[in-house]
Amino acid sequence: MTPLLLACPLSSACGTARRSRTPEEGAKMSGRGKRKSRSARQGCDAKRPQVAPLSSVPGDALAQDVERLYRLRMPPDFYHLWEFCGRRNPQSPQDALGEAGLRLVGPYDILAGRHRSAQNREPNYFLHWRYFYDPPELQTVLVVLGESQQHLGYYRDSPDDLPAFIGENEAAKGCQITQMGDNVFAAVLLLLERRRRRRRRRREPAGRKHNASLLPLEEELRTAAKALGYSLEQKSKGMKLRAKKVVAPTFHGAGIVVPVDKNDVGYRELPETDAALKRICQSIVDAGDDAERLKAFAPLQEMTTLVQFANDECDYGMGYELGVDLFCFGSHYLYKVVLQLLPLAYSLLKRSLFGEILEAHLSSRSRDTVDQLEQLCS
């Protein structure tokens, strides 16, 4: 496949000197209908709620290690949950939510000092607790003990931003990301409440007893969240504002956000619906031989060519969307195209760290062990 060409630099010229498309190109670009103006919807910024000041934890050397090793800023609720769990279980804060079948992982391993006992002093933290379908935007912080690989993590639209929300995924089932509030307190409570509703519907006697046993924990979480000023809604005000900026839902459902200017420059729709794109991907996977697979790749190659045109006109969101969709489909046959599309899109959007995470992930993408420290610790 022909590699994508580096697009024009970000400048005002992108909004005024747009190349005229041929009739054939115009027909291909209209697959998802007429583009809607998004600049007006992106006019207001989402604001996170005011929260109580932190204690000494963020100034701790371990907290500094978290942000240095992950190269991401952590939000206040990350540290507040650690303090909450430290009060519940001073000997092992990571297991303080064990009665609910939850464990604190990922960057919490750093707060617990696990990295200091690792034989390998430079493990790749981009891969630490990164599940098969986790896009670079998702950073796992909580896991649900069990076989479904259910986990919760911070979802960022840009590595320079604080998280937009908590995302939930069950890697054993697919790529879908469910939004679970804008802080970890809300996410845990929403998870427990959902479990309780399911058990009630099933009328499980053991379930009723288990639900009652978790009520004290739920009350503690609510009290702490209220004192800290956190929203417990599944869709907070900030998340609703973000939803207006989403240009495409993508296969994982959490949506992507890219800057769109007053001239509607920044994103253009793919020429295929999600269902049609999935059929194209499946035909590539199901091909019986190389010749058949090469033929099945033809529609995808056409789309990558259209992405080049879009990049030339600073509609960087098109390649971003296509790359995310192909990543979420999960087939190794698509990795080469993903690597052509996404690192470039992240670079053009000034989100290069996500490109580094993606490249590290695809180089060793696995459905197996996600705890990078487990094999390294002495």
From TrEMBL:
<protein>
    <submittedName>
        <fullName>Histone PARylation factor 1</fullName>
    </submittedName>
</protein>
<comment type="similarity">
    <text>Belongs to the HPF1 family.</text>
</comment>
<dbReference type="GO" id="GO:0042393">
    <property type="term" value="F:histone binding"/>
</dbReference>
<keyword id="KW-0158">Chromosome</keyword>
<feature type="region of interest" description="Disordered">
    <location>
        <begin position="16"/>
        <end position="58"/>
    </location>
</feature>
<dbReference type="InterPro" id="IPR019361">
    <property type="entry name" value="HPF1"/>
</dbReference>
<dbReference type="GO" id="GO:0005694">
    <property type="term" value="C:chromosome"/>
</dbReference>
<keyword id="KW-0539">Nucleus</keyword>
<dbReference type="GO" id="GO:0072572">
    <property type="term" value="F:poly-ADP-D-ribose binding"/>
</dbReference>
<dbReference type="GO" id="GO:0005634">
    <property type="term" value="C:nucleus"/>
</dbReference>
<dbReference type="GO" id="GO:0006974">
    <property type="term" value="P:DNA damage response"/>
</dbReference>
<dbReference type="Pfam" id="PF10228">
    <property type="entry name" value="HPF1"/>
</dbReference>
